[in-house]
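Workshop exercise sheet. Pairs work together: one partner reads the sequence aloud, the other fills in the structure field after running the prediction. Swap roles for the next sheet.
Pair: D.N. / O.F.
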Amino acid sequence: MSVRKVDVLIVGGGLVGTSTAFFLRQRGLSVVVLERDRIGVHASGTNFGNVRRQGRYLPQLPLANRSLSIWNRLPELLGEDVEFRATGHIRAILDEHSATMAERFAADALPYGLEIELLGHNAMRQRFPFFGERVIMGSFSPSDGQANPRLAAPAFARAAERAGASIIEGATAASIERVGDDFLLATPRHGTFRASAVQISAGAWGGTLTADLGEPVPMAPGAPQVAITEPLSTGIPSVVGVWTSDKTRNVYCRQVEQGNLVFGGGIRGKASIEPSRATVDPKNTERQIANLTDLIPTLADARVIRSWSGVEGYIDDDLPVMGPSARQPGLFYAFGFCGYGFQLAPGVGDVMAELIATGRTETPIDEFTLDRFGSYSSGRDRAVQPASQ
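Structure field:
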């Protein structure tokens, strides 16, 4: 079988991989996306759908800001509606310690351009009357919002295809090897591809691929827990979360336009990458419901109609791997977003396309490069060569 030559190969067809392909085509590079299953079927399509900047690790905010500007332009960019709505994101505060956390974050986030409105008890009751008396105050980010994760990655894939990218499903990367200045990537069913640049955006499978390439990552799979209720009359206009350091108390919810309430949080379930399996823990769902009704008492009689999970990749330091390889020019990584990558993904795709095409990016990502684990020669001081056009 003949070898197909392109500028960039992307391994992984989630929201990061498909958005990178879209933005690479805007820069004139030829690109093929290889997805082992179906586009967006794993973490990109099974997550909660939160598009938030509030509560993020502060050095991620420049990336989150860049991503939000893309979310706001998606109908124009993609020609499709992925149901992004800037509904705002309200975090309930239940105790003084959490209030201190929220106040500190609001002050620290302001230089990054994120404005948070802190609401006292009376203001919370007036703005969000569905909250119960246990909520002593709130932290509101008005420009955050929500979107439909089942729509986002497929929409980016279709837009990338219309722009000239090739999206190939059922294509597992059997081997990746360096040959001269290029990479050869073999697949069992779709032949061999040759490219001057390769991006690994394989989610929970990313760590296996980097280990094969000599750059292991301390990473493990996990299963986020999500469920949905029947349509409800309760009007919850914004995404709801909680300021808490107690994972058993963590819960979040959002009401979609049809009235159903999507909710998640709590302790992750078990997951495996071979075979691809993620489990839902019914006890965790019960805790989620108890925590929700503690926040919003009118949800006490809501009926849950479905629960689900997906295989997500979690890195030990809770930060993603993003940027160039520390060892091989032309090799790039963007995976391991630890359950909070949905909001970031379009910005990640734009940044990675810029980095691959030009050798640099205006958005700082040094904290997320793989060489932070200290096992490799530093890639931060080495110039990144742009992909050939």
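Discussion prompt: The first helix runs from residue 15 to 26. What would you look at next?
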